[in-house]
């Protein structure tokens, strides 16, 4: 679990001074946490010992351990596919009894199980409520690879409502859509390391226009996370040069299944209309 995930899912309580530290870090993650304890304390207008107490409360041995975890995240967030391949050959070795298919399948199963643990059922229910009942338009967007998952979600959502707009891949036309975006619209973003800058820029601009942001991302969390009302993390590391999109697809499929359970008569008529046109949810 990343430091940001630890902060956002912390089950205990923070003091007012600790909350200031948390908010300061989330506003400029992870850079603030890589400064000295004194500098972070100054930015949050609290005492330096409060920084150390926060690190200890989160389960680290001290501020040095906290920073070591952040530095490890920075390295992982921006590793190239070739660097990832070398490290993953060590983390996911193929034994003499394995084939490449066996190894990849086992790693995929573990990724799906880990991702399931990161996403409680209640958060799926919250997502379904928003996507079914949001009074504004629903926009979806993703990056070079994750854009295909965004398109799948958009296709599913059109079976429930007609105001779904796919902005993938990000282009000048996508950016021009910002002119018409605002409350109560919702933007569903898929962004995974190494985090695509044009996707990040689009989401940040939309958030600045009070558009509700829902983010699907990895365990290290896209920079968009601090602007998101709900974020959906997944474990994407696998025995490949590229992170896997299987958990993201699973999450979309689970969400669609929950939404189907809530189908009303109006939605049933809409599904029938799709069928008559020769299109189904598949």
From TrEMBL:
<dbReference type="InterPro" id="IPR009057">
    <property type="entry name" value="Homeodomain-like_sf"/>
</dbReference>
<dbReference type="InterPro" id="IPR001347">
    <property type="entry name" value="SIS_dom"/>
</dbReference>
<dbReference type="GO" id="GO:1901135">
    <property type="term" value="P:carbohydrate derivative metabolic process"/>
</dbReference>
<dbReference type="GO" id="GO:0003677">
    <property type="term" value="F:DNA binding"/>
</dbReference>
<feature type="domain" description="HTH rpiR-type">
    <location>
        <begin position="1"/>
        <end position="77"/>
    </location>
</feature>
<keyword id="KW-0238">DNA-binding</keyword>
<dbReference type="Pfam" id="PF01380">
    <property type="entry name" value="SIS"/>
</dbReference>
<dbReference type="InterPro" id="IPR047640">
    <property type="entry name" value="RpiR-like"/>
</dbReference>
<keyword id="KW-0805">Transcription regulation</keyword>
<protein>
    <submittedName>
        <fullName>MurR/RpiR family transcriptional regulator</fullName>
    </submittedName>
</protein>
<dbReference type="InterPro" id="IPR036388">
    <property type="entry name" value="WH-like_DNA-bd_sf"/>
</dbReference>
<dbReference type="GO" id="GO:0097367">
    <property type="term" value="F:carbohydrate derivative binding"/>
</dbReference>
<dbReference type="InterPro" id="IPR046348">
    <property type="entry name" value="SIS_dom_sf"/>
</dbReference>
<dbReference type="Pfam" id="PF01418">
    <property type="entry name" value="HTH_6"/>
</dbReference>
<dbReference type="GO" id="GO:0003700">
    <property type="term" value="F:DNA-binding transcription factor activity"/>
</dbReference>
<dbReference type="InterPro" id="IPR035472">
    <property type="entry name" value="RpiR-like_SIS"/>
</dbReference>
<keyword id="KW-0804">Transcription</keyword>
<dbReference type="InterPro" id="IPR000281">
    <property type="entry name" value="HTH_RpiR"/>
</dbReference>
């Amino acid at each position: 679990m990343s430091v940001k995930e630890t902060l956002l899912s912390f089950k205990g309580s923070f003091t007012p001074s600790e909350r200031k530290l948390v908010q300061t870090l989330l506003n400029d993650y992870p850079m603030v946490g890589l400064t000295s304890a004194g500098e972070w304390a100054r930015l949050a207008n609290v005492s330096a010992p409060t920084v150390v107490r926060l690190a200890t409360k989160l389960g680290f041995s001290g501020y040095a351990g906290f920073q070591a975890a952040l530095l490890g995240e920075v390295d992982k967030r921006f590793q190239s596919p070739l660097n990832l391949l070398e490290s993953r050959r060590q983390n996911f070795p193929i034994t003499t009894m394995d084939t490449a298919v066996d190894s990849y399948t086992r790693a995929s199963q573990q990724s799906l199980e880990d991702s399931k643990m990161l996403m409680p059922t209640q958060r799926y229910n919250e997502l379904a409520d928003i996507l079914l009942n949001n009074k504004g338009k629903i926009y979806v967007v993703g990056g070079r690879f994750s854009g295909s998952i965004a398109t799948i979600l958009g296709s599913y959502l059109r079976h429930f409502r007609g105001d779904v707009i796919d902005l993938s891949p990000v282009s000048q036309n996508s950016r021009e859509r910002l002119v018409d975006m605002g409350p109560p619209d919702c933007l569903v973003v898929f962004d995974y390391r190494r985090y695509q800058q044009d996707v990040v820029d689009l989401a940040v601009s939309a958030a600045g226009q009070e558009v509700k942001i829902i983010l699907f991302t990895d365990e290290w969390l896209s920079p968009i996370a601090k602007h998101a009302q709900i974020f959906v993390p997944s474990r994407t590391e696998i025995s490949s040069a590229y992170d896997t999109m299987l958990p993201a697809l699973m999450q979309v499929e689970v969400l669609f299944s929950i939404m189907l359970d809530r189908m009303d008569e109006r939605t049933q008529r809409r599904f029938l209309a799709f069928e008559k046109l020769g299109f189904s949810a598949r």
